[in-house]
Amino acid sequence: MMKIQKILHIFLLSICLGLLVSCDTVPENAQDVDKLPVIYPDYIGVTIPDSIAPLDFSMADDNYSKIYVEIKGLQGGDIQSEGNYADFDVDEWHHLVSINKGSSLRVTVYAEREGHWLKFREFPIYVSRYGLGDWGITYRRIAPSYESYSDMGIYERNLSNFEERALLVNTEVGGMCVNCHTPNTTHPDQYVFHVRGENGCTYIHHDGKSEVLQAKNAELGGSMVYPSWHPSGRYCAFSTNKTSQMFHFSKARRVEVYDSSSDIFVYNVATHTILCDTTTMTPLNAENCPAFSGDGKWLYFTSAHRQTYPDNYDKERYDLCRIAFDASKGRFVGPVDTLVCASAMGKSITWPRPSYDGRYVMYTQMDYGYFSVWHPEADLYLLDLRTMQSHPLHEVNSRHSESLHAWTANSRWFLFTSRRDDDHYTRIYLSSIDDKGRATKPFLLPQRDAKRYYARSLYSYNTPDFASKPAKIDCYDTGCEIMRPERVATKVSRK
Q: Is-above-0.85 flag for pTM?
């Protein structure tokens, strides 16, 4: 019996040793190929923060059956991976990246095809000297449908690994639409989101408590839509929109979303008062997409001359504007200033997002309208508030829609959604901005076995934002709170 156990022990040990050797051995007799590997996701030459999750990748061509990857740091360290895809250990990855912060990694890919190994040209991954600063991100996952939807939810993701958690799924609220989760300057201690449907509401969490507001105010004539927190936490700007959609008979353009009317107001969180001001609620213009500056002194928004809808939907063109805000009195000060007159160029601007350091405003520019997700020509632009000059972010733009962007709290990194992958699903990409306003090559949100993950995913990522830490939200308890009939009433104050 002892002899059999000894033989079995030796047999198992030999298998383990064989596996260890095979995982750390460079393929023999590999043929050198003088070209870069074609990998998915395309992480060749990207710049990453030191806290990002491992950049797992595969050969884009499915005819390659196996891959061996070696990564060496210019400042030291190396890791390897062998298998169907490059699957890096999280702890080993972070150790390698941390000791090479401000330097670069060199990646060598070997791939097996029909029993033959090929060695491709080495490529770099740059590790920025600027940290991400924030813990993770939040987003809505939703099927890219037109008129109906099934399950959807708001999620948070730890950017240093692959952990994802549901904050609220619509199965907890009777299948209603949940959207627009917005923290205050990436801090999840204060946030707001909407629930649309028969038992809809605006859900606000602040000062350690939650409030479920009435979805609509009869005097306002609509609901609270696109939110933006004042950094003090005392106010939150919203638009109120009467939104419609129609369909194109074209493969390139599928659906159009437009507003027959829209205005902007500021909500006082403590008094539950909607502060309406004639400067941002004009009868001849459609004001939309509000965004407070990092210091709270300005409210950025877009404005367009109202059109006859739906006939002239493609003539609606928004300009980028701002107005001063006096937080001590809770009101706007002075006239509206037009920063970029896109309408004069035959273009339209949407989703202005000022960096928290006050240096830039990032926005999306397209041919007309404001709902950029359905516009393939939609590109990201950057307005430098020092020079008041704008330029397109060529480094991140593609032939498909770029939109729904957000900044980290340190204003060094940003994320955005893009349809560049397959023109159907919006996915999250990350990039950074240097001191001259140039963006780095964007990289797709890392996933474990990313090729399989994204091929099997049936959801688009929507309204993403950064988060400084995990949110203290219980999915079930929040759902129960929303499903109760009690609602906090809001009142309107007009100037």
A: yes
